Amino acid sequence: MDKIAVTGGKPLEGTIEISGAKNACLTLMPAALLTDQPLTLTNAPRLADIQTMTELLASLGCEVASLSDGRVIALNTGGINNHTAHYDIVRKMRASILVLGPMLAREGQARVSLPGGCAIGARPVDLHLKGLEALGAELSLEDGYVDARAPNGLNGAVFEFPFVSVGATENLLMAASLAKGTTVLKNAAREPEIGDLAGCLSAMGAQIDGAGTSEITIEGVEVLRGCTHRVLSDRVELGTYMLAPAITGGAVTLKGGSRDLVGALIEKLEQSDIAVEDVPGGLHVRRRNGVIRPLRVTTEPFPGFPTDLQAQMMALLTLATGESVIEEHIFENRFMHVPELARMGAEIEVHGGAAHIHGVEALRGAPVMATDLRASVSLILAGLAAEGETVLSRVYHLDRGYERVEEKLSACGAKIERIKGD
Ligand code: EPZ
User: Fold this and answer.
1) How far is CA 396 from CA 53, 239, 302, in A?
2) Can you tell me which atom of ligand 1 is nearest the CA of 189?
3) Would the N or C end of the chain have less CB density within 10 A of its end CB?
4) Is the preceding peptide bond at 151 cis, omega within 30 degrees of 0?
């Protein structure tokens, strides 16, 4: 397995280009199941998770071509010949559940393995299932699979989410696009990826109103056509790399980043004396006067502070001039990075869903282990600021969601290299 070695202590200077959003692409690709016409996605990121979704759709009989060195994905699901998403693929990536809604809506049947938990929590799919039942699906669970039927198609309904779920909102938005009649999704997720999916579905002929707000109304249509859609910029990658100059000092321009994608992060960075300026085509980030102020951060659904940036923010706050508190309200076990940061000299105590971070003068490089996607990149950020060398193992977690991380950071002066494993 590959490792990544980082030698810290150098302020970063330069420009980083932000790729297309993993979490947008992972719902846009299954949207191709809603039509037998070609769907083309541009600005696609080149990531392991995209490869997994490609594998899953191909296993259903879809043609998925990766063009322009992986930046363009051409999908054609005219020939669906299998309605079962197998466990051996689904277990690799929870987002596999997003084939359920569109395949059921178009084909009247779908059999999808339950995803199982993951490192950051149990992460059930009960809201996906309850929502599809509200649209008239007949579901049965057996042998670890959910078997969904809608022989006469789905019917529009009003469905209120008991709490915000990004994936369940995406599944229901896709399914409702082909249901008979009107669907109203209440307490829907407002993440930018929902708006991006709605934009693509509308270009395919769907009738959607209110995407990006907590109430989305969908008038089902008989048939959807194909389209070409540009994948939204990745706000989690953007936020991650905004934290790089914040933690190392220096100044970095994030090309393709826009303020509206990371408003909650910018608000916190400004409180911490980190300057974020709009520049042509992106954002420019630098420390205002050399220190990092402590913060209180609580993760919430968009537009609140994103849970996907929690670990990265924690890395920054290990070097703040005082005590910070981070409360994780979305996932029940998303502090796996704490013991690894502690190995680097960070002083963090976790009580229940809150981490208390006592800022230290400096971090020290150490061998550390990635446990999940965002935890792994928080250790890279810490390594960029630490004295000495940090070697990150289990880098496959990182490759799921960050394209060419060592190239992007080296281009800004970081001393970082990949050590090829067996
Ligand atoms: C999406 O996951 C993202 N993944 C996650 O990003 C992100 O952390 C999460 O949304 C929250 O923003 C993709 O978009 C592929 P949820 P999702 O449904 O849809 C519970 C990353 O690092 N829940 O909003 O799975 C769930 O357990 C990944 O890129 C239920 O209980 O998240 C969690 O505690 C990590 N039942 C909370 O709701 C359900 O049916 C929010 O989950 C669904 C979710």
Assistant:
1) 16, 21, 27
2) 24
3) C
4) no
Q: Where are the beta strands (DSSP E) in 91-225?
A: 109-113, 138-142, 145-149, 158-160, 182-186, 207-209, 215-219
Pocket test for ligand 1, best of 90, 118, 165 (most atoms within 8 A of CB): 165
User: Which phi and psi angles does 329 have, rounded to 5°?
Assistant: -105, -5
Q: Which of 15, 12, 416, 18 is nearest to 237 (CA)?
A: 18
pTM of the model: 0.97
- The candidate with the shortest Cα–Cα distance to 233, out of 209, 256, 252, 254, is 256
Question: Which of 76, 65, 82 lies closest to 37 in space, CA to CA?
Answer: 76
Q: What is the pLDDT of residues 190-229, one digit of tens each?
A: 999 999 999 999 999 999 999 999 999 999 999 999 999 9
Find the catalytic residue in 118, 200, 227, 412.
Answer: 118
CB neighbour class for 15 (10 Å; exposed up to 12, middle 13-18, buried from 19): middle
- What are the pLDDT digits (tens) for 364-374? 999 999 999 99
Question: Is the separation of the CB atoms in 350 and 359 below 8 Å?
Answer: no
